[in-house]
Specification:
The structure is a single chain. This protein has three domains: 3-60, Ferritin (Up-down Bundle); 65-132, Ferritin, core subunit, four-helix bundle (Ferritin, Up-down Bundle), CATH 1.20.1260.10; 134-168, Rubrerythrin, domain 2, CATH 2.20.28.10. It is 67% helix and 5% strand. It contains four helices and three strands. Helix 1 runs antiparallel to helix 2 (36-60) and helix 3 (66-94) runs antiparallel to helix 4.
Amino acid sequence: MRKMTEEFLKAAFSGESQAHMKYGIFSDVAERNGFPNVARLFKAIAYAERVHATNHARELGIIGDPKENLQAAIDGENFEVSEMYPVYKNTAELQQENGAVKSTHYALEAEKIHAAMYEKAKQSVEGGKDIKIGAVYICPVCGYTVEGEVPGKCPVCSTAGKQFKKFE
């Protein structure tokens, strides 16, 4: 692929990915505010944006087999833990942006767990087996992630465990 086309597709992938997430968030807000049809519209178009992002990712060669995808996820999480979020958090602290300090701290702590979970999954896949994993719970405030049993309260942000979202 020629460099200009590749750069444009990367920018399009980023834009479509952000639109997918943003519209999903907007859908949640509309739902909470009593506008279920607006929520459904946002949710539907968010899906369309995901389709666009997937098409761009395919053309860019981002999508691999499960082992390659897990390694890409591990690499991404480790980058966020070791380089990205520490720098972002330090900058936010320096500039006294308390909300940004909190959000980057939350993400940093969750990304550490995600990297370890992906590593465990990759080891299973390399052995030719699917990972053995129980229910996964996510804190809706900070993204803290735990497999198995929900804590009484989130160890990162103190949100009550009963508020965690369950994935099984």
